[in-house]
Amino acid sequence: MAKTLLCRVGDVPSDGLKEIALEGGRKVCVINAGGRFHACQATCPHEGVALSEGCVDGTTLTCLEHLWQWDLPSGAPQGLAEAALPIFSVEVEGESVYLLD
Amino acid sequence: MQIQLNAKNRAFSFDVLDGESILYAGMRHGLELPYGCATGTCGTCKVKCRSGRCVSAWADAPGIRVGARDESDLLMCQYTPLENAVLETNATVYKADPGSCLPRYAAGWITGERALAADVMAFSLELDRPMSYEAGQFVALEVPTVSGYRVYSMTNFSPGTQRIDFLVKRKPGGGFSDWLFNPSRPSVRINVFGPLGRATFSPSAGKHLLIIAGGSGIAGMMAILERAVQEGYFERYRGHVFFGVRTWEDRFFLAELEEMRAAFPGQLCVTLALSDDDVPESAAVEYPGFVFARGLVHEVAVAAMAGNCANTRAYVAGPPLAVNATLRSLLRDAKLAATDIRYDKFG
């Protein structure tokens, strides 16, 4: 399993989102849901809008473009969303957040 | 030309008139196609072209750059087919409900222009045929001397009317508003397509209303309020209107809002938020029934409504960044469900 450094814990405020560009051009969105870290694809499965412009509240992630929502950490669609959101495994080690895949 | 649209749930086919946008054609045929602005900026109507040549009336339409993009993408609102074409969308598309107000073409002539503020004008269109629409909807307008359609929300609610009312905020360099504000413009036929838009109100909503609008975003809200007042909706449900302008000098529609508020005292509340200006003392004298606040309208609204949003339907209109900030606050702070929020982003 590959372990890739995404960011420092302090880089993403509580209930915040941040897009991270990895080596090779891959992008992921890091989510700090009240202190619990998650990572997902960087763009909304609806129209490809950056999810880092969205918002997170508790266990719900929302894309503000058309209010598609997903449960965290399952990525299951909620409300208006018509597609699931792929969620990636992350690990917090000290002050660092890693992507596991 | 014939379009076949393969949606997520099923396929449709429909005819497109010569030069007509694919979006308008599909909607005329009663399809609930994905769209937002209907004029090339938001990207919501982006689909993939699998076969057939289509051309754009506006090659640089910014909507094509919203979100992910590949070479087969096209905006249904801007493209017309040159031959039979097959399109594909990952959206679910349904046929419109029987009896719904399907959009169609009409002709209109401007009448009743009046200045509401320094850069805001109201006007009416006399239509060549009656139009029915839902409160909160808009139409697309085209004038011969300006390329492409622009959309404006109706400020009145009058089923089957031949007179629809609008307001326009002057946008420097904006083709339609420059044309409209030109005092020497000739009287010309205006092409109308509508009604459009899903941020609509019906009394069957059965919820308290929260209305948050910046500047000309109040336009469609006036139709929503007019319908609610006509139906006596505020006898049973509360209404909170938060209207934001930059300065006291930019205010408009206050007399109309006051008339509606006074009809339902205690049930319909109106707050005017000034983003760039302190509230003058004369404001409370002139409109003693209003609440006044300094600040961005969505921040004023969410602060005032904290803990008071149970069984509420929110309507939000304004520029995209302001609407997104409002949506974020309504979801996170006011704890509204996404399904209880209707919004229009424009600008």
Account of the 3D structure:
- The complex is a heterodimer of chains A (101) and B (347).
- In chain A, a hairpin with a 5-residue loop joins strand 2 and strand 3.
- Chain A has a single domain, classed as Rieske [2Fe-2S] iron-sulphur domain (Rieske Iron-sulfur Protein).
- By secondary structure, chain A is an all-beta fold.
- Chain A has no helices and ten strands.
- In chain A, the strands form two sheets. Chain A has a six-stranded antiparallel sheet with strand order 1-10-9-4-3-2, with no helix packed on it. A four-stranded antiparallel sheet of chain A has the order 5-6-7-8, with no helix packed on it.
- The radius of gyration of chain A is 13 Å and the shape is globular.
- Chain B is α/β, with parallel strands linked by helices.
- Chain B folds into three domains: 87 residues, Ubiquitin-like (UB roll), CATH 3.10.20; 93 residues, Elongation Factor Tu (Ef-tu), domain 3, CATH 2.40.30; 143 residues, 3-Layer(aba) Sandwich (Rossmann fold), CATH 3.40.50.
- The radius of gyration of chain B is 20 Å and the shape is globular.
- The chains are: A mainly beta (101), B alpha/beta (347).
- Chains A and B meet through loops of A and helix 7 of B.
State the major sheet of chain A: 6 strands, antiparallel
Return the string of H and E elements of chain B: EEHEEEEEEEEEEHEEHEHEHEHEHE
Helix content of chain B: 10-25%
Coarse structural class of chain B: alpha/beta
- Counting DSSP H or I runs of 4 or more residues, the number of helices of chain A is 0
Strand content of chain A: over 45%
Question: Can you tell me the number of structural domains of chain A?
Answer: 1
Q: pLDDT below 50 for ≥5 consecutive residues: which ranges of chain A? A: none
Number of helices of chain B: 7
Q: CATH superfamily membership of the largest domain in chain B, which one?
A: Nucleotide-binding domain of ferredoxin-NADP reductase (FNR) module
Widest beta sheet: strand line-up of chain B: 11-10-13-8-9-12
